[in-house]
Amino acid sequence: QVQFVESGGGLVQPGGSLRLSCAASGFYFSIYRMNWYRQAPGKERELVASISSAGGTRNYADSVKGRFTIGRVNAKNTVYLQMNSLKPEDTAVYYCNTIKDGMNFWGNGTLVTVSS
Predict the structure, then answer these.
(1) Contacts of 113 (CB under 8 A, 6+ apart)
(2) How far apart are CA 87 and CA 105, in angstroms?
(3) What is the dihedral of CA 81, 86, 90, 94, to 10 degrees?
(4) Which of 27, 33, 46, 50 holds its CA 20 to 30 A away from the CA of 59?
(5) How buried is 53 (Cβ within 10 angstroms: 0-12 exposed, 13-18 middle, 19+ buried)?
(6) pLDDT one-digit tens code per residue, 70-97
(7) Gap between the Cα atoms of 79 and 70, Å rounded
(8) Are 7 and 65 a contacting pair, CB within 8 Å?
(9) From the centroid of its chain, how far is CA 51?
């Protein structure tokens, strides 16, 4: 079955950086678009970044453009999210996601807290 394990979250000061990782298993990773979402307390889950199967197309939410970079290594079944210049409003649980056979699959998430 499809499984994701996110890691790399933690507490960081404003202006700092974190690198999130998502290890995928249970499906043919290299042919699927992969996404990072986040959900802040009291808010709806939102799409942060998306990357095509081969990595050639990357899309970002306006709020993170120029600060976040999504990447993937298909040989390792892993997708990354490099987050720089972090702001308090980036505080959220970050989730790995894909859509397979019309269904959304999610990891358990990793918490990112940006605070001084």
Answers:
(1) 9, 10, 11, 12, 91
(2) 28
(3) 20
(4) 27
(5) middle
(6) 999 999 999 999 999 999 999 999 999 9
(7) 7
(8) no
(9) 10
| Residues 6 or more apart in contact with residue 101 via CB below 8 angstroms | none
pLDDT in the model for residue 84? 98
**Secondary structure of residue 27 in the 3-state scheme:** coil
Structure tokens belonging to residue 115: 């605070």
| Residue 78: strand pairing partners | 23, 73
CB neighbour list of residue 109: distance below 8 Å, 6 or more residues apart: 6, 39, 93, 94, 95
C-alpha–C-alpha distance, residues 44 and 1, integer Å: 26
Phi/psi at 75 (nearest 5 deg)? -65, -20
Q: What is the pLDDT of residue 105?
A: 96
Handedness of CA 105, 40, 38, 48 (dihedral sign): positive
Q: How many residues does the chain have?
A: 116
| 96 within 8 A of 6, measured Cβ to Cβ | yes
- What would you measure as the largest C-alpha separation in the chain, in angstroms? 43
Q: Which two tokens stand for residue 9?
A: 């979250």
